[in-house]
Amino acid sequence: MSRFWSPIVHSLIPYVAGEQPTTGGITKLNTNESPYGPSPLALEAISKAASDTLRLYPDPTARELRMAIAESFGLDKDEVFVGNGSDEVLAHTFQALLNHEEPLLFPDITYSFYLTYCRLYGITFRQVPVEAEMRVRLDDYRQPCGAIILPNPNAPTGIGLPLADIESLLKAHPDQVVVIDEAYVDFGGESAVSLVRSYPNLLVIQTLSKSRGLAGLRVGFAVGQRPLIEALERVKDSFNSYPLDRLAQAGAVAAWKDRDWFERHRAMIIASRERLAAALAELGFHVLPSSANFLFARHPSRPGAELAAELRSRNILVRRFSAERIDDFLRISIGTDEECDRLVAALGEILH
Ligand SMILES: Cc1ncc(COP(=O)(O)O)c(C=O)c1O
Predict the structure, then answer these.
(1) What is the pTM of this model?
(2) Which domains does the chain have, with CATH numbers?
(3) How does residue 240 score in pLDDT terms, banded at 50, 70 and 90?
(4) Region 146-166: what's the mean pLDDT?
(5) Would you say the CB of residue 339 lies under 6 angstroms from ligand 1?
(6) How far is CA 304 from CA 108, 229, 308, in A?
């Protein structure tokens, strides 16, 4: 605390990112990164971009990347907005589209950055409780509101909603923006991108951090009809004209176009997830059904904090949240099969 702070800083609740260890020898299953390095074509493009052209500012409009994304979805580049990780895209979305007189609705168990943005931008919000089995119940969103944001699949539960449910939510709220945060959609969820042309109130946000193995490059994007995208551009150009550097733009274009790498690696992660879910169930864990690159699991006889600490002492990192209702759950990112085996062996040792 300091007398030099602007008043708002006192009321912020900063997001706490998962641990990024600085030493080797750690099995890192705590921040939902891909266990596989990105497409070699992306690495090649980044190397090529690391040249004397770095003295020049990057394209402020990231035209080529927006075109590549738009083309793959059958959209126009002006229906795509890109940013420095989907966190930045989300931040601009909260400021540009979600701050209204009526409250913004989102689940009580969800991505904790939403609460952080509400504090940062002074947004009125209401958290809608998920049901006992941690599912989002869409009927609970049939209430007056300023806007809605839902991750699909939800985080940290991993539970997905069918596209038909998202469409009925859009129909029920024609005068409110509905944001679907699809950070994990490539691991078995149903994307709402196909609904963008039909619903002017829909904004879909995705990232290259997870299914493209590029968390370190910081690239995310939103797709929506032109008026929504224009609002994001107005905020972006009032904040930072160049959120994506030359390396990020080059790497992201190449990664996006490498469908073969993408399809192969997401299939590997889904297969590892199913394998790990079965092994955890065998150890007595209650594992929520996941459509993401992580599992959310609780053991009936051991507190989550104790399990996480025991794993940490064995150099295995998983994520645990201290919020009510989920404090006994571990959120386990899907690693390689070898990393998952290491986790299962350690848990077997701890539990028996
Ligand atoms: C639900 C959700 N949305 C968005 C993000 C942000 O991802 P990034 O900023 O790496 O694109 C995350 C990151 O873990 C997430 O869990």
Answers:
(1) 0.97
(2) 7-37+260-351 (3.90.1150.10), 51-258 (3.40.640.10)
(3) very high
(4) 98
(5) no
(6) 19, 41, 6
Give, using CA atoms, the residue closest to atom 15 of ligand 1.
183
Distance of CA 210 to the CA centre of its chain: 8
Instruction: Judge if the beta carbon of residue 34 lies within 6 A of ligand 1.
Output: no
Contact 284, 299 (CB under 8 A): yes
Give the H or E element holding residue 104: strand 104-107
Q: 209 CB under 6 A from ligand 1?
A: yes
Tell how far CA 205 is from the center of its chain. 9
Q: What is the β-pairing status of strands 294-298 and 329-333? A: antiparallel
Q: What is the whole-number distance in angstroms between the Cα of residue 4 and the centre of ligand 1? A: 32
Token code pair at residue 154: 């939800």
The best mutation among 109, 181, 212 to test binding of ligand 1, ranked by most ligand atoms within 8 Å of the C-beta, falls on 181
Q: Whose CA is nearest to atom 3 of ligand 1?
A: 183
Average pLDDT over residues 253-279: 98
Cα(181)–Cα(15) distance, integer angstroms: 17
